[in-house]
Amino acid sequence: MNSLRLVFAGTPAPAVPSLERLVRDGRHEVVGVVTRPDAPLGRKRVMTPSPVAAAAKAHGLPVVKAARLGDEATAGIEALRPDLGVIVAYGGLVREPLLSLPRLGWINLHFSVLPAWRGAAPVQHAIIADDAELGSSVFQLVPELDAGDVFAARSWPNDGGLTAGAALELLAERGAGLLAEVVDGLADGTAHAEPQSGEPSLAPKLTIDDGRLDWRLDARAVLARYRGTTPEPGAWTTVGGERLKVLEARAVEDADQAEPLAPGELRPERRRVLVGTADAPIELVRVQPAGKGAMAAADWGRGLGELVRTLG
Q: Does pTM surpass 0.90?
């Protein structure tokens, strides 16, 4: 197998397993890492390197920090003389001439089975849509959004219990192996890409409004919305005109025995809080009221006034 000179582009934590896998395998040389600039984090807004930057530093890899892949970043990457560019959730577009700079172009690990869920938030949208499967694809990067030919794709059952955060963590680990296989295939000339087949669906970045729970839907749809928007941008509802973050919610095992609740109707019990939907109630487990810290929903429910019994 020929050894390739790789430049890796990525920013958030889900990109780290792929970088770690390529470095750990040692079959190819990661000659540089491209990531977004340091960003302010926490209450004190401390400038903090991206998770990929931190991982690159731990391995002693050269790092190019760029908010956009313009002329300066392109020159820095060109100096690394890469054979192949590998991108996982970098957070910016790769345009010409950078797109054609590596001898083998760029490949992208994307967290859906393309052409489903092209865009910035594929896992979140797949979970909100209650898809039966979640997956990953490795494809050739082209100017059009997530439209290149696919080298490899794999899917796994969506068991309906994972939040988007947990699912993305799982897919990041599994996708790292898929990505490494494609890199090896490109090195030895066995990798073959096929055009995407089927009707594309889009997965734009979610907004705060996407996290609002609609209690008029059935319990399955409400829980899918909660899981798909957790932890970002966060699921929420309103109570007494103020926003209530829903940090954890789940189906009610004895829903068939519970007294019916109207959509959005609250029933605080001694050890739990139930909320009505279009069919079965669901249980709020952890919540965060406006201006307060996270707390057990049962504790929050005991502090509600008698007149507050519905969610918006």
A: yes
Give me the amino acid identity at 50: S
Measured CA to CA, the distance from residue 58 to residue 126 in angstroms comes to 34
Phi-psi category of residue 100: left, alpha or beta, with phi > 0 → left and psi -120 to 50 → alpha: alpha
Q: What is the pLDDT of residues 237-292, one digit of tens each?
A: 999 889 999 999 999 987 667 678 999 999 998 889 999 999 999 999 999 999 99
Please count the CA atoms within 13 angstroms of the CA of 91 that sit on its side-chain side.
Answer: 16
Give how far Cα 181 sits from Cα of 28, 70, 162, 174, 190, Å.
12, 30, 26, 11, 10
Strands 282-289 and 295-296: antiparallel
Question: CB 164: neighbour CB atoms within 10 A?
Answer: 24
The C-alpha atoms of residue 20 and residue 43 are separated, in whole angstroms, by 30
What one-letter code names the amino acid at 262? A
282 vs 251: CA distance, rounded Å: 5
